[in-house]
Amino acid sequence: MPTKHMSRLAAWLHGSFLFGLGMQALIGTSQLLAAIVLQIAWRTDELTELANWTGNALKTQTPDPIAASLLRQIHDFSLHPQTFWSVYLIGHGLLNLSVVAALLTKKPWAHPVSMLVLAGFIAYQLDRYWLTHAPVLILLSVFDFVVILLVWNEHRQQRLAAKA
User: Fold this and answer.
1) Which residue range is the domain that position 147 belongs to?
2) What is the pLDDT of residues 32-47, one digit of tens each?
3) Membrane spanning segments where (predicted)?
4) How far is CA 4 from its chain centroid?
5) Is 140 within a domain?
6) pTM listed for this prediction
């Protein structure tokens, strides 16, 4: 029975690996779309209007700390250079999609490189977390770590299969 249990576990881990790749592809695609939307909003002065609206709302706000914090973050974001965020989102999105494509095409270098790329994402996200305290960065880092574990397991399974 141990082989049947192990084959179920292996199948579940492989399915989880494929699900993780699908999620990475979805995240990468979302980042590319967000960069496009950001560029359109920036070029059509939508962000300037948002900055003006949030600036006025901050001046006339009631003492609600959560709403004030949210408005301040929107206001600050809309005033910062959008080029950085566009380049970041495009770069991160393309890296995510490249990792997924390389892993799905079973390139020999794909597993180690994708683990390094994901580890780099985690390092950057945790650095940004210490600055912003945005909980979504912790969630993304945990997700990336789980994907690293799944990629490592898939790499190990492929190496064992190649030796057999």
Assistant:
1) 2-42+82-163
2) 998 888 777 766 766 5
3) 85-104, 109-126, 132-152
4) 35
5) yes
6) 0.66
